[in-house]
Structure formats: C-alpha cells, structure tokens
Amino acid sequence: MSADRRHGTSEDLAAALLAGDVAIALARNCGVGIAASYFIVAVSIPGGRPGDAESERVVGRLRGVLAGWFGGNVLSLLSPLGGTVLIPVESGTDEGLDIRLAQLSTVARFTAAVVSAAPGQIPSAARRAHELLELAVEFGRPGRVYRFADLALEYQLTRPGPGRERLAALLEPLGEYPELLETLRLHLCENLGRQRLARRLHIHPNTLDYRFKRIARQTGLDPTHPIGQWYLRSAFVAEVGSRNPAIRSDGAPPGSATA
Q1: Is the pTM of this model over 0.85?
Q2: Greatest Cα pair distance in the chain
Q3: pLDDT tens-digit series, residues 137-151
Q4: How many Cα atoms within 13 Å fall on the side-chain side of residue 135?
Q5: Most buried of 5, 53, 176, 239, CB within 10 angstroms?
Q6: 104 in Cβ contact with 137 (< 8 Å)
C-alpha cells in the first residue's frame, strides 16, 4: 500500500472512530490495530492557513513525528488549523505524552487538550477535549498541553444553566463602557499588577484606580477586593460560555473535533 493510500485510510479510520464506529474491518484493511483506549488530543495551530504550502508541510511534519514516536497505530485528522489526534494509551504514560507534545513545539507552536477514553467513548471524549481546547485558547493560554483538571472550574462555569446566566449578567452594566471591560479583563484574566496594567493600557495609575471605582459603581463588585475579583472573573468565564457555540453541552460535536 502506498504512503498516500495508507495515510488516507488511516484518516478514514480516525473519522470512523470519532463518529462512534469501531470499524474493525477498516482497521484490518489499513493494518492498524484498534487500541483498548486512546489519548484524544485536540490541537489548535495558530497562524495556520488552509491551502498554504508551508502550512500543509507543517501538518505533514507533525504527522511524521507523531508516527515516529508512537508507531503506525497513531491516527489523526489534522489541517493547518489543527484537529484531532488519537494515540493508543499503551504507547506511553500521561507524563510521557505531555513531554512529547511539548517537544512538538519545535515543529509547530500549538495548544492542545488531552482526555482519554475507550473506542466506544471517543465521540463524547473528543467533544470534551475540543471544549477544553476552546477554553484554553479563549482565556489566553497558548502553547501548552491541558488536562481536564487544569480547566475544571472554567469548564463547569461555562455549562448552560441559571448559574451561568446569572454570572454572565454581572457584566451587563459595563456593556456601554468598552474601556472598563478591557481594563477589567486584563486585570482579572492576565494577572497584571497595578503599574504593569497601567502601562499596558497607556494610562496613569491614578486613572486606573478611577476606572476600578467606576467598575465597582456599575457592577456593585469591587475589582480590587478578593470577593469582587472572584465573582467578576467567574462572570467573564460564564460570559464566554454563553456566547461561544463551540463551548456547549447539547450533544452536538464542535466543528473542530474532526477538522
């Protein structure tokens, strides 16, 4: 079987597993054994451009390195934007996988989220992996490998329900003041100190203090107090869940899960 044909058949098998089809006959046809369980790796590649020759070469190198490390049983559906990789759990430990994925940054700087599952659970596991990936990308945490424990709070706060809607509503009074929203986002989500934040916003520290007071008046929560910070940061997380269709729990797979 030619390399191109083997690659195409492996992609077909990856697509079948991600769709919930164990596809034993297809696995036998391409000479790949179906593992007892897989690491499902959701990948985002910033700056990738579909159809661009260099971006396509980067994806090819990623596939080649993964195959060299984990053998022919690794399956992937990758594009220049990212996608999904299925790695047999028997190929290594969680720690070993994280080390290998970190080393892949020499090929392409990417962000990844990892969960593990048996073949029959791959579709739901892939949805969760891509939801975690969306959260990692949304909250400005590129270039790392994430597990569920790293984003458990953000994941829970973005689930639909009255709690999420109530938290997201805390930011509504700031809707008419984009400069206050940006100030609050940088303050809470990037953990910048007062002086650094003022420099980042190109304002005087006293102006920053005045903005904090305005935020407190509008929301009823003091962004300089731990309790106010906790609620307001939770509100940012909840707001992301309410407006981002890729972060949901309605049973529909996110668009990137089989990219």
Answers
A1: no
A2: 69
A3: 887 666 788 998 888
A4: 31
A5: 239
A6: no
